[in-house]
């Protein structure tokens, strides 16, 4: 067990150290941390050091240079969780109404290009279940690392606190259905475990959104992911997502991630207040 | 001409009236962006900005992620998001875990502001029921920013301000009227 020199804070990482670490990660692990915005990425680097992987920044550089840190484990520090289920209830209410109105000739294809913890995936699956639309959709989910993939597939577990917040959101959906969120969970030793029976229509893909793209999607759910990427990386991502969308398909991003700073995409605001756009 | 590049104000329980009064006094058009980090209900997305705008002399808005901030405007950290600052005069939002049971966390925004604006930052901490913001004020002080703490006896709840006073010796400890006067003096 390593003993840390001291607990670091994000502001202690110098510009020079950041550049060096980025170069090493790019060369040895194949991704760039300079694609992320300044403060969160520094906070994650500090979390990595404070986790005990290295005593200080110099030792971290050395370990990264020697590839002494597992790639998936390293990557897990640069993935950002969702806060709760049914975050922004008006968004899910909109989605439920949209799916109900949609023609049922072909199955609606829904893609989560970057799923880290499954909270939004299971929000969708519960929404489909209670609106009776579960057989009308095909869901594809990209999960970047194996550990998260098996956790999401096997059992979603909510802490007491997350359950309380998520149940509040669920009530705010105002769906007028005889369910509470608790009906979809069982109380376990470490929290609330999702009941089985939601997985049949979900295809899981291990990998990142840009490396394993899918095609011809009707709905893409990519909420609060671009918060962590730079403008140029976000634009690159949107371009890829657009390639995966059918004409008329909808893109759902975070409610505070409006595309005002990105010009030139064929996206029309469908409900800008909720971060919902439609491909022309 | 003011030497500051930004004003940041943090508060929680008991700070709403003081914030309203500060914003209502800003008829001098402060030559900096004003960042407001206030603890608020996570699930209520509308109403707060509208209330603040009722009496404010400058426009108050909730920024969207990567919005370019401008002087003379106030930016209120949106409910359920942390608010940071980035190069190129950008505001960044984040859904990272709560800090001090709070999202937005005053500590996180204050620390990000200290990092970005260094000694050109003016920071005010107001009434509040937990110690979120105290560590942030310490970093602002360490970077040479100017710190103002609401006089604890003037606070509805003094945990936040007393917590700050345990960590730093601020540049000013003032009651609400004193804060208004000082801001006017420093930001014109």
How far is the first residue's CA from the last residue's CA of chain B? 6 Å
Most extensive interface: pair and counts? A-B, 32 and 30 residues
Uncertain runs of chain A: none
The whole-angstrom Rg of chain B is 14 Å
Identify the overall geometry of chain A: globular
Following the backbone from N to C, one meets helices and strands of chain A in this order, namely HHHHHEHEHEHEEEEHEEE
Shape of chain B: globular
Share of β-strand residues of chain B:
15-25%
Please give the number of β-strands of chain B. 9
Mean of residue pLDDT values of chain B: 96
Tally the helices of chain B: what do you get? 6
Largest sheet of chain B: 7 strands, parallel
Q: Tell me about the biggest sheet of chain A?
A: 7 strands, mixed
Protein described:
The complex is a heterodimer of chains A (280) and B (188). Chain A is of the alpha/beta class and 280 residues long. Chain A has nine helices and ten strands. Chain A has helices at 15-29, 38-53, 57-65, 71-76, 89-101, 119-130, 146-154, 160-172, 231-243; strands at residues 108-112, 137-143, 157-158, 185-188, 191-194, 202-206, 217-221, 245-252, 267-271, 276-279. The longest helix of chain A is centred in the N-terminal third of the chain and has 16 residues, at 38-53. The radius of gyration of chain A is 20 Å and the shape is globular. The model of chain A has no long low-confidence stretch (mean pLDDT 90). With 188 residues, chain B is of the alpha/beta class. Helices cover 31% and strands 21% of the residues of chain B. Chain B is built from six helices and nine strands, in the order E-H-E-H-E-E-E-E-H-E-H-E-H-E-H. Chain B has helices at residues 16-24, 48-55, 106-117, 134-142, 159-167, 176-187, and strands spanning 6-11, 34-38, 60-61, 74-76, 82-86, 90-94, 121-125, 146-150, 172-174. Chain B has a seven-stranded parallel β-sheet with strand order 3-4-2-1-7-8-9, with helices on both faces. In chain B, strands 5-6 form a two-stranded antiparallel ribbon. In chain B, strand 8, helix 5 (159-167) and strand 9 (172-174) form a beta-alpha-beta unit. In chain B, helix 4 (134-142) runs parallel beside helix 5 (159-167). Chain B starts with 5 loop residues before the first strand and ends with a helix. The chains are: A alpha/beta (280), B alpha/beta (188). The interface between A and B is medium-sized, with 32 and 30 residues.
